[in-house]
Amino acid sequence: MDGFSLGLILAGVLAAVQLVLLALQAFEHYRYAARRLQKKAYGHPTGQALVIIPCRGLEHNLERNLAGFFSQDYTNYSLRFVVQSQDDPALGVIERLISEHPHVPAELVVAGPATNEAQKVHNLRAATHAIPESIRYLVFADSDASPSPSWLRALVSRLEESRSAAVTGYRWFVPTQGTFREAVVSSLNAAYAMLMAGKTPNLVWGGTWATTRESFQKLGIRDAWEGQICDDLVVARLLLRRGLRVQYEPACLVATACYSSIREMIAFIHRQYFLLRHVLPAWWLFDTLVGNYHILVFWTAISATVLGGNSVRWTGLATASVLFILNWVRAEFRAAAASAYFPQLAHQPPFQRIFWWDRVANSLIATLGFVLSISAGLRRSVSWRGITYRIERNGLVQVWHGTPAHDTSSCPGERGSESAGQNAVVLFSTDDAGSDPHRSAA
Description:
Blueprint: H1 3-39, E1 49-54, H2 62-69, E2 77-83, H3 90-100, E3 106-110, H4 119-127, E4 137-141, H5 151-162, E5 166-168, E6 171-174, H6 180-193, E7 208-212, H7 213-218, H8 221-225, H9 232-242, E8 246-248, E9 254-257, H10 262-279, H11 281-290, H12 293-307, H13 310-341, H14 349-360, H15 362-377, E10 381-384, E11 387-391, E12 397-401, E13 425-429, E14 439-440
Parallel strand pairs: 1-2, 1-4, 2-3, 5-8, 6-9
Antiparallel strand pairs: 3-13, 4-7, 5-7, 10-11, 11-12, 13-14
């Protein structure tokens, strides 16, 4: 046996060990999620909760998603929607839903344009500028999430029983056609979802998470957001540095519609890696190099199978086959988890086609994720919902609402967002419907 074959075998053994560990973690996620979802003993917390939902534009299923927040089986909660401006197309949908559900206290806050931080971060800072003392729990959600009626009660109950600094859910992309494009975003996202469980070091996901008002203020989360490109990873970084745990609650995983075009899908994946690279660079480096080690070995084995001599060819074929089978096993656990989360949907044709794409083309999908991760790590700017952000080497964020201008002096990266929230207005509220809408949020 030549040196290359021996080296390939050793590399294959290490890659197989990595995949076995990832498969065991995937099984633990499935077991943990199935047990929690079957239990459904969420308790009946009574503390007042404030749910904050930043919105921008008329995204897919917006009205249906937002309507779900008005139908929570929680007795004491209010909603606070946040938009950038009164011209936002989402504003009409939000006002109509507030009017149609007068039994749920709700308000609409106009935050104004961001100047040195992500617009979502700016919106969240405006929405948390003034929090009533009566609020016990702060809950954050995204407008592209479709919450179940028990979503809020499950989230707050877990926060109470665990006494953790934060409780988080996650998203699962639901396909409409079962195309390869949908399989790419669904598989990559599900692979990260499967890393979350009861005893793992979970990160906060901004689309569904909760903390107490006391913890939010004591930890200085609002101040930590100032001048940042991202909200949830900044919170995760803050909690990691404090050694505080984040609990994952499977009942708070929310369905999210897959992107309708390849361009949107690639932009989304690229953006996730970009944010990880600039907020938690050590995590990004570990994920890119170590997390994708088995992919590098797999394609090395495929190359050896195609280009090598007899002994090398058989070694490459055996190595690639073992890694392919182990990746198939991981895909089976993802399919099982989807069935636990969405028992009514998982057996429908789009989901079934997604499962088969995930099983057969998982290595190709993971390779695309690896390439996009490397690409994101080499860039300092990203476009997000019509706004372009650039992160300078000093960490400051420059913002262009629209096409970036050549003269960067029009968007200086100086920190001046302390006024976020001070100039925000409550445009519409169940408390003052029919009266003067322009009431200060502070």
